[in-house]
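for the recovery benchmark. tokens below, seq after
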């Protein structure tokens, strides 16, 4: 009888020991799990903070680069405005009334005078056919440069000029079969004739006269007037 009681007591003690060991394992596993979760969360938070900081740094760098580029461009235009370009012709005292009739302009292509109330899209627009003089002149009033060419212009010339116009807001381009020069660059009251798109005066003309000092209405839109109505 005594032996049986001792055996039962030993079993209870063993069971209790096993329970205590199980509890210790559970506590240890929870501690490990919480520690790992904390490390992961900290890493995510730290990584997120890094991503935000890195994104902000990149945005700041882009803004600084854009500001520097705009400043450099403004400085270049200011310098270009002071330089006289060889071969440029100018006209003074041009009228600027809005009319809905054809206008007989004294120069070809025209560089100013009375014009249609609706301007041409001149946001780097390349036209493959001739455009109305009266609408084109209105775009010149807004500060655009108009590039025209006749049959003497080569395919390479047209490609070079098209690429430049497409990349330049406040400019547009169209064929003009009746012009005497191979390539003509026009701004309000201002015109330059060249034989090749490679002529360095082309870039000088763009730099000086795109929204240049000749502009009658600085800041006026060059977007498609029809789309804005």
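predicted aa per position
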């Amino acid at each position: 009888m005594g032996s049986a009681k001792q055996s039962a007591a030993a079993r209870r003690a063993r069971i209790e020991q096993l329970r205590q060991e199980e509890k210790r394992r559970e506590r240890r596993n929870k501690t490990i799990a919480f520690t790992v979760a904390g490390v992961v969360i900290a890493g995510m938070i730290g990584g997120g903070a890094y991503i935000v900081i890195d994104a902000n740094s990149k945005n700041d760098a882009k803004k600084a680069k854009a500001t520097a580029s705009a400043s450099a461009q403004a400085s270049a235009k200011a310098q270009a405005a002071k330089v006289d370009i060889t071969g440029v012709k100018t006209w003074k005292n041009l009228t600027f009334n809005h009319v809905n009739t054809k206008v007989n302009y004294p120069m070809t292509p025209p560089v100013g005078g009375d014009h249609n109330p609706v301007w041409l899209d001149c946001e780097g627009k390349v036209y493959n056919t001739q455009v109305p003089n009266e609408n084109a002149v209105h775009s010149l009033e807004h500060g655009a440069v108009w590039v025209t060419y006749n049959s003497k212009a080569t395919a390479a010339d047209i490609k070079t000029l098209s690429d430049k116009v497409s990349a330049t807001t406040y400019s547009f381009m169209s064929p003009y079969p009746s012009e005497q020069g191979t390539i003509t660059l026009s701004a309000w009251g201002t015109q330059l004739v060249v034989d090749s798109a490679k002529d360095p005066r082309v870039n000088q003309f763009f730099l000086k006269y795109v929204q240049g000092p000749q502009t009658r209405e600085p800041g006026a839109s060059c977007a498609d007037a029809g789309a804005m109505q």
